[in-house]
Design brief:
This protein has 324 residues and is an all-alpha fold. Helices cover 81% and strands 0% of the residues.
Length: 324
């Protein structure tokens, strides 16, 4: 239930940014969002480690629950101030918000299915998420059982991950001028996989912190570039619905990954489980180049991505009645 709720929450939140920011400003907005998220994660890691160390675990869960409630309230406040005025709602739009949400999600899935290259990217990210999901189970076991470290060390690792996110948000533009987007995306996923695999043979408390900075750096670089190209290619009329549908599709694999994590640890041990997760991500990384026209799409300028999609899938836009 928690995983399903998280997927729904991310799906709803994912559509907000695309609905209020123009495609020209989407990369900057996404980068700034990642920076704010990194800062909040750093604070969350510090607070979480403190709460777990000096209070009961129930308090940590209550803090976590409160963060989702606050996030949901913020999402409602943002969406209520950005939905069209009553007089501008197109004829035939459902008045029931729940029915409208369902129809928007279904429309987003239909649009996603018809854009083959974007659908393939979403499926690959879903597979990557399947490998990464067990980390939320494996890491606490590694810290407590494998490394014999205190509970607050998990907060340090979370903070290190956010430091990597923050560094990438600041320096990604510099790196993007020297490497192609497709190279950065692939190298980013490889960095994530190699970092996680390294944890399986790492001893002590210092090196895992460095590894998690690298993991945060690689994942953020790859996701910012992918998200920017995809969202700038989708017409404005479909961006919010498309973002919600793709986010839900990617995160729905999380329950399967969590279910597999316990089996992996019991069958192979904590170190082998970490190695399997990391090497699985590394093995999937070059698969992105097997997606037809992937390099052409992600290496194009953001303003050209939409033109390429329109050329490759003209029937999608004509059938949807989309003009831009």
């Amino acid at each position: 239930l928690s995983s399903l709720g998280t997927a729904l929450f991310i799906a709803a939140g994912g559509g907000l940014l695309s609905s209020i920011v123009s495609r020209e400003n989407y990369r900057d907005a996404l980068r700034q969002t990642k920076m704010l998220g990194a800062v909040s994660s750093i604070l969350g890691g510090i607070i979480g480690g403190t709460v777990v160390s000096y209070m009961v675990f129930t308090a940590a869960f209550l803090f976590d629950a409160f963060s989702f409630i606050a996030g949901g309230a913020a999402a409602i406040a943002i969406s209520s101030s950005t939905i069209p005025e009553h007089g501008t709602v197109p004829a035939g739009t459902p008045t029931n918000r729940l029915i409208q949400w369902k129809e928007d999600i279904l429309a987003g899935f239909k649009f996603l299915k018809r854009l083959k290259i974007v659908m393939n990217i979403a499926l690959l990210l879903m597979c990557l998420n399947l490998f990464l999901a067990p980390l939320s189970i494996i890491l606490p076991i590694m810290v407590r059982e494998g490394q014999k470290l205190p509970a607050w060390y998990l907060g340090i690792l979370q903070t290190s991950l956010s430091v990597g996110v923050l560094l990438t948000s600041v320096f990604l533009g510099f790196v993007a001028k020297r490497l192609r987007n497709s190279q950065i995306i692939c190298l980013g996923f490889v960095l994530v996989g190699m970092g996680l695999a390294t944890l399986s043979v790492t001893k002590g408390s210092a090196l895992p912190v460095v590894v998690f900075v690298c993991v945060g750096t690689g994942m953020t670089a790859a996701m910012i570039l992918l998200s920017t190209q995809v969202m700038t290619a989708v017409p404005d009329a479909f961006r919010a619905r498309f973002s919600a549908a793709s986010s839900f599709l990617i995160d729905i694999s999380r329950p399967a990954g969590l279910a597999a994590s316990g089996l992996m640890v019991d069958s192979f041990g904590i170190n082998m489980a970490l190695a399997m997760v990391g090497l699985g991500v590394v093995a999937l990384s070059p698969v992105i180049f097997l997606i037809p026209k992937f390099s052409v799409f992600v290496d194009s300028k953001p303003e050209e991505a939409g033109l390429l999609i329109r050329q490759w899938y003209p029937s999608v836009y004509c059938g949807a009645g989309v003009g831009g």
